[in-house]
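Technical note accompanying the year-one report. For the benefit of new consortium partners, we illustrate the data format agreed upon in the data management plan: each record pairs a sequence with a structure-token string. No post-processing was applied to the example shown here.
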Amino acid sequence: MWVAFVVNVALYSFFVATLILPASSLRAAQVKLPPNERAIEEVKQGKHKVAYASWWGFDPEDATNALQAAIDSGVPKLIIDDVGKPWVVSRTINLRSDQEIVFEKGVVVEAKQGAFLGRGDCLFLAALQKNITLIGYGATLRMRKLDYTKPPYERAEWRHALSIRSCDNVRIYGLTLASSGGDGIYLGVAKRGIPCTNIHIKDVVCIDNYRQGISVISAENVLMENVVMRDTGGTPPMAGIDFEPNDPTERLSNIVMRNCISQNNAGDGFAFYLHNLNATSHPVSIRLEGCKTIGNRRGVSISIGNSKDKTVKGIIEFVDCEFEGSEGAGIFIAQKPPFGCKISFFKCKVSNAAAKQPTQAPIMFASARGNFEPIGGVEFVDCIVQDEVERLPFAYLDFAGGLELVEVAGTITLMRGGLRSEYKLTRELLNQWFPTQAFKVFPPIDVGVALATKLSPLFPDAKLVKGVSSNARLRGRAEFLIWARAGEKVEFTLTVQPVGRIEVGTAKVSMVTPSGRTIAMKDAVSERECDYKFVADEKGAYRIVCDAGWATVTMKWCSHRFCLSASDGVFHFLGTAGEFYFFVPAGVGEFGVKVAGGNELERVKVTLSDELGRVVGEKDNIAQAHQFVIARDDAKRGSIYSLRFQRPSVGVLEDFYVQLQGIPPLLAPAREALLVLPLNADN
């Protein structure tokens, strides 16, 4: 009897133990596990501070419900146990506050094939939560990046592996986040005005993600240590890490990266795009210590708004960082005025950058079309450039034209062929390296509503039997001025064309009458000829506005004479070749035409001719801004000039910009279509 009692006690003890054993102890016996009801009930009663996810069951085909239920239990510490097969999930797993989740070594949480069809479906999501710890040394959160690029999936860039939004006190240690349809880790907002705060990311690897290794949209008090971001590729920006707020109310405050590596990304290693912040935003404060980029498109790129009201304040610091083997520049700084946010490089090194692109340089500065402030406000303290290409350590691409590079200070040591050359960065040295283009300044002339009634045809008697046609592709916001008499029926055709892989649905179209009334017209549908008609109720120029975002707009045909117009003074063309005409009013003795390419590869050849067809200016391969200044011998009368755009002999004809200076910003696709504005029309 005593023996039977002992045996029964032993069997009972074994039975109870198996109720709460982790699945890793049972996986040799079975793969599919039923829920452990007793253990689940004890968790509900608060008897366990530590629980195993397999207590809620495991199905190798779809473990979503079990994993979500385990998290929803609220147990303080949850262990995702290694059951021998991946935890396959078919929808977003929502994280909860006040919970530590430990992924055992070897655990894989994997997106189910054919699931995550929503454009913003993430693998794990925490929104408006706090006190979350994720520990996963040797564990992987993995999605199916390649699947999301083809049907039945709709293309998107927000299927993140781990999305943290408006959360406080989050720790992420040891995990590998792989092959997402967006970012490995996303730090953003779930509610306007609430950034992520107190975030610690350590020993994490983000690999083979679609858009970014890590995106930081709005965050405060962030520490990243020993983080690796590599092999990002799929959709721009494709950076290792991208700091890019979406709104002026968002912030990048007290962020430190220490001993992090960004490697082999199709985009930049460390990217900072701060144009959505402005002077009213909270100052940025970001510091990178001992970080390294290897073999990215560029090592680090920083782009900031170029005006006093659009430039955020603060500081971005790089200390003991290395930028190695990038395809382009190791350091690239664009649209950075000397005021606002300060940028500092302390004992940093750029090596073997742009080795196959001799027209670039290890360190590059750039202005952009529409910039008016100088470029600068950057300090290099005891920095080294190792470069075997015979060139300056710096290059400056002045796409705005006539903007100086100023307030760039410090010391750079250039190492080439075993020789060392030290440069102290002074104003005199910068002027020597980059002689400022002395562009002549002309007062802008606006063809606004107040002047629309004063425009008139240059050739009012010209018969337009077949109307006026044009091939000009204007990118973004396109404006056209159509001149008509009261009572005339006006017809025209618009086409909206996408650029690259950017999808375009419809574009808003409106009309502003000569007297200033705005009338909405039907939307223009992409990749289709869209016909419009109206009856003019007054004489004058009717402004047609089509806002196509990143796409292009062409007025293919109009029954009446029309001109391309630029209310901001700059025409943005894409891939447009042909001849366009403009009129220089009487009294104008000198005028300018400024032309710039889209970048170093996107160029254009321009020929400027007078009314007799004589070439008065010509330049091939325009990338950086170039200014034609034309002095007229006979300024007592007005005259017609033309601009011919052609493919460059080097590079490609894609984006380019044209600005008419000192004369009305009007370009006609035909001489007979010219509209003229007297120079003193506003008097």
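Partners are asked to follow this layout when depositing records. Helices lie at 2-20, 37-44, 64-72, 427-433, 449-452.
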